Amino acid sequence: MKKLPSTLPNMLCVLTLISVVAAGALAYVNKLTTGPIEENKARTLAEGINSVLGVNDATVQETAEVEDANGNPVVIYSTDKGVAVQAIDPNGFGGTLKVLVGFAEEGTIKGYTVLEHAETPGLGAKAGFWFQKGEKGDIIGKNPGEKELTVSKDGGDVDAITASTITSRAFLRAVNVAFHAYAGASATDANSAASPQQQPKN
Questions:
Q1: Under 8 Å between Cβ of 146 and 109
Q2: Which of 28, 34, 143, 160 yields a CA-CA distance of 20 to 30 A from 9?
Q3: What distances in angstroms separate CA 67 from CA 29, 177, 180, one per listed residue?
Q4: What pLDDT digit, counting tens, does each position of 111-170 carry?
Q5: In what order do the strands lie in the sheet with 97-103?
Q6: Which residues contact 34 (CB under 8 A, 6 or more apart)?
Q7: How many other C-beta atoms lie within 10 A of the C-beta of residue 125?
């Protein structure tokens, strides 16, 4: 096969052909992986909801998306076994921290899981277990509606992660946001249920 002369038009043609082939390959790989990635996200979320509610077979019946006071997204998952709320705080030590919190009907925390974080391994990353039942910063059973959750350094009654006060503050802010979204949704549902039915006109 005759070798193409090393001219500018020929080089541009070769580069264009390589770019087209590479773009096509990337699009194909993306199409193949999108489905499994979404399925994995859905499975992780379902497992998280079951975990924070302390059940094995919760079924999401309704999903509501709202915003907190700072415009950050909050997602409320109403299930047949309770309510779980996903909230974020963008000001963790390493960036955004996303949590999922399960609430009992009276507003106490049933459980939580950290869905995403960029905290330092061995320090801020401990948020996943530090605040669990029986641990040093245990928040399970607490009701943020009775008293906002804050670290002891700020006058609260929650022990911060050792050497990770910034992460602890971000985590508790996210949990408080989740509670307020839950309380707001519960109040809306209660008001809707209590509203008198309009009588039909004769």
A1: no
A2: 28
A3: 34, 10, 11
A4: 999 999 999 898 889 999 999 999 999 999 999 999 999 999 999 999 999 999 999 999
A5: 60-67, 73-79, 82-89, 97-103, 109-116
A6: none
A7: 19
